[in-house]
């Protein structure tokens, strides 16, 4: 743990808001930041996806994996391709066998916390919200797995909004309606499927519930194990968001 002290610094873990643009996620960000000790940052350009891709390469690319596997074998049991070159300076992938995928993954996310999230000393729960997770559907489950497994005590909030309303909001208006409904419909299905498979660490929230039903927000706090300050919540709901 001491080697990744920034990653482990928030004593009560992490919360990630996974959604798409114009879902009301800035409202959710504000509600979370009203909880004492929570520091939930805004968007970061989906940096954890790019870091996650690097993590996946080191962990699973054959050129790394085969060398790690064969390093522990007697020479005669190694793959014929690697037998004469493994550990030699003329190996095209020289040194790949020495890369520790777990340490690499934890080190990247430790750096992400230190330099991007930068939680202050009073922070006990860190995290961020991001609207770009759905842009790579094939990588989505792996990306969520990386967040859940590398960040201590990680919880994921999947946020939805009525798609017809989203399609009429912000920049989505400039896209063909059917494309928006199809793209974000797939996003919702990905959210729902992942949450169903990981109920202990994932929770679905709906924008309509946030703005019309205090019980929906109370359920969110219950999932997080946090008491709800109802006056603070109502003050946030009354504030106009002009971003």
Automatic annotation (TrEMBL):
<dbReference type="Pfam" id="PF13469">
    <property type="entry name" value="Sulfotransfer_3"/>
</dbReference>
<protein>
    <submittedName>
        <fullName>Sulfotransferase</fullName>
    </submittedName>
</protein>
<dbReference type="InterPro" id="IPR027417">
    <property type="entry name" value="P-loop_NTPase"/>
</dbReference>
